[in-house]
Amino acid sequence: MEKDLVEYIVKSLVDVPDEVSINVVEGEKSTILELKVASEDVGKVIGKQGRIAKAIRTILSASATKGGKRAVLEILD
Prior knowledge:
Largest sheet: 3 strands, mixed
Shape: globular
Distance between the termini: 24 Å
Subcellular location: Cytoplasm
Organism: Sphaerochaeta globosa (strain ATCC BAA-1886 / DSM 22777 / Buddy) (Spirochaeta sp. (strain Buddy))
CATH architecture: 2-Layer Sandwich
Radius of gyration: 12 Å
Strand order of the largest sheet: 1-2-3
Order of helices and strands: HEEHHE
Pfam families: KH_KhpA-B
CATH superfamily: K homology (KH) domain
Number of domains: 1
Keywords: Cell shape, Cell wall biogenesis/degradation, Chaperone, Cytoplasm, RNA-binding
Helix content: 40-55%
Function: A probable RNA chaperone. Forms a complex with KhpB which binds to cellular RNA and controls its expression. Plays a role in peptidoglycan (PG) homeostasis and cell length regulation.
């Protein structure tokens, strides 16, 4: 569920939504979402001073906590 949420948010932000890919690494107590976007869209996902990335991580954390887990978003370049 978290993957779909992040994918929806990120695809709404970027210029090349087809380049968005999310790899999910499941652990016992946490889930790591590895986000890849087109090189020209990395700045749009991170935002000025990391504000957009922080907002996405906050939403992701709230969603994961609701399910009793912990989720981490890593933006790969």
